[in-house]
Amino acid sequence: MFLVANWKMNMTRALIDEYLDVLSESSIWGTLDGSRIRIGIAPSHVYLDHVVLGIQNRDLPIIVLAQDVSTRTSGAFTGEVGMPNLLDIGVKGVVIGHSERRRFFHETDENVVIKTDLSLSADMVPIVCFGESGSQRKRGKTFSVVKSQIEPVFKGVKKARERGITSPFYLAYEPVWAIGSGQNATPADIHEVAKYVSEEFSWPDPPAFLYGGSVSSDNIRSLSSLGDLSGFLVGSAWLDPHALLHSADLVRQLNRPVREGVHVK
Ligand code: PGA
Prior knowledge:
Helices cover 42% and strands 15% of the residues.
């Protein structure tokens, strides 16, 4: 299971050091050895370098992911952070198309495809987020929204696979109404969307799904129960390192087989 803490626009250097110290002092790592649990952290861009060095110095088997990447790779694009920048500092994955980026920063499906392709080509693990809003769900539009978001991604992944790119790839089902609301999707909701996405498109390899939206140590076991998920993308709850460790331990005890694993390089 891939457990990713999305810190969003939170944390400071001091808090990051405390967070990593808590992780480093935990006895969990021995028990995770040989398990299929992988932990990822997605800090804000300004702290990526600090977190990469922080986990190296503490010898923590954690993957660092960016919360976004530019569609451009270099040049006169003030304020952007490109894939070569992320690679240069040892970032291993990137969250793409998060609903907050779609909603507040006009992220388009077209951009999502470009970013996914850049990530796969750079052997950087993409986590592509998708999911419907509350009003779309109420109007019975969940599948049509999901289809419109996933179809271009599917085409892009298929082309990348045809080019021989085999890097792992994750789809994160993050219904907008569940994010930060305290109201998580049910295992049945997740199951029907994962099944729909898996069956609607002829994926070259079966997609691995993460779920995000009000995940906590209280619901992570039940959310894992239907077996569709390869992990979780978690915001507020995992701003607390103890909660991340506790959740990792709960998931470890389930000892579930997963579809796709990322390796700590
Ligand atoms: P949340 O956020 O866990 O605070 O609901 C999840 C996310 O946005 O990835």
